[in-house]
Design brief:
alpha/beta, Aspartate Aminotransferase, domain 1, 15 helices, binds 4'-deoxy-4'-aminopyridoxal-5'-phosphate
């Protein structure tokens, strides 16, 4: 009999949080660390949202338990926001408020999967998905993509990976970690393929507002309405409103999936903290001005990062199309004599030598690449890449 359950022992702790924690710990000791590790905006939460939370603290209604699926007014506001932003028409009862998008991902798989069910997961992928799939008893089937195909999975690849145990597909656009955004035609082709084969899609729309140049976000169940009956949308306030610490996300599913998620949550966490829900209510009911401002800053930093990375000998970086990550290949560096052999070792070496934190691609099933967030100040960004360049060119 195992002392700690085998199910939990099999989880790899989040590599992105580990890199971020290590960088923050070194900084606390006084080291001049620059971290490209964090998946969070460097802006404070907009003031109007903070004010709504302050008012909520004093309202005794928020001092009590509230419905497990979320405050009714927040579920309604999320339904309205979804109609406004992606054009997806849903009833508030289909919305389940969760403790962040991460919790929505976990609950989506818990609700959909039985042991042995297979889930197609295009790689490189955000590190949480396979763990959430495994915890729900499912089996991840990786569908590898590379920079050559813009990190986009094709219907042919998905079809080749499909078996009679395939229950669901994970679809993420804009993508963490690759920054890829699927063009509408490809979203449509993938949605139609899923409908044809009765496959559920868990679609993570958390970066919906962060796209650049002429890349545009398209919501799967809007592009392919027939998919709505087998589609779970994951979203949250973290990235759009610089609210990572408030822990509010949601899932939107067909009636049976949403009801199952509420039932699970009624035993698992009960309601999300009411003050955070009130802050989220102010966020999703308010304007998108702050998002536009952040997006403009990210767009500028994206260009700088892309240019500086490609100037380093042996580094090749695709132009990020969305989210706030660059995902360069370091293959040309690893090939050089005297350099580390893997991006995991390279990232550790860079942190040790020049106090710059990057997340090795191994964390995302993308060895040879690394993820660098461009959600940090312009000066830090240039200084950080400059230090990497000096080290690798020396
Ligand atoms: N989905 C994706 C693709 C993400 O990158 C993240 C955050 N790293 C989340 C979901 C979860 O965000 P949160 O739990 O902070 O809402």
């Amino acid at each position: 009999m195992a002392r700690i359950s085998q199910r939990i022992s099999a989880i790899a702790p989040s590599a992105t949080l580990a890199v971020d924690a290590k960088a923050k710990a070194l900084r606390a000791q006084g080291a001049p660390v620059i971290s490209f590790g964090a998946g969070e905006p460097d802006f404070p939460t907009p003031e109007s949202i903070v004010e709504a939370a302050l008012a909520a603290v004093g309202d005794t209604r928020n001092h009590r338990y509230s419905p497990a699926g979320g405050l009714p007014e927040l579920r309604e506001a999320i339904a309205a926001k979804t109609r406004r932003d992606s054009g997806y028409e849903v009833d508030p009862s289909q919305v389940v408020v969760t403790n962040g998008g991460k919790h929505a991902v976990y609950n989506a798989f818990a609700v959909l999967l039985d042991p042995g069910d297979e889930v197609l997961l295009p790689a490189p992928y955000w590190t949480t998905y396979p763990e959430a799939i495994a915890l729900a008893g499912g089996t991840t089937v990786e569908v590898p993509t590379t920079a050559e195909s813009g990190f986009l999975a094709t219907v042919e690849q998905l079809e080749a990976a499909r078996t009679d145990r395939t229950k669901a597909l994970v679809f993420v656009s804009p993508s963490n970690p690759t920054g890829a955004v699927y063009p509408r035609e490809q979203v449509e082709a993938i949605g139609r393929w899923a409908v044809d084969h009765g496959i559920w899609v868990v679609t993570d729309e958390i970066y919906e507002h962060l796209t650049y140049d002429d890349h545009q976000f398209s919501s799967l169940p809007v592009v392919v309405p027939e998919l709505a009956d087998r589609c779970v949308v994951v979203n949250g306030v973290a990235k759009t409103y610089a609210m990572t610490g408030w822990r509010v996300g949601w899932l939107i599913g067909p009636a049976d999936a949403a009801a199952a998620a509420v039932s699970l949550q009624s035993h698992q966490t009960s309601n999300v903290a009411n003050v955070s829900q009130q802050a989220a209510l102010a966020a999703v009911s308010g304007p998108l001005d702050a998002v536009a401002e952040m997006r403009a800053a990210f767009d500028r930093r994206r260009s700088t990062m892309h240019r500086l990375l490609n100037e380093i000998d042996g580094v090749a970086c695709m132009v990020p199309q969305g989210a706030f990550y660059a995902f360069p290949s370091f293959a040309g560096v690893l090939d050089r004599a005297g350099m580390p052999d893997t991006t995991a070792d390279l990232a550790a070496w860079i942190l040790e030598q020049v106090q710059v934190a990057i997340v090795p691609g191994e964390a995302f099933a993308g060895p040879g690449y690394a993820r660098l967030s461009f959600a940090l100040g312009d000066d830090d960004l240039s200084e950080g890449i400059g230090r990497i360049a000096d080290l690798l060119n020396s």
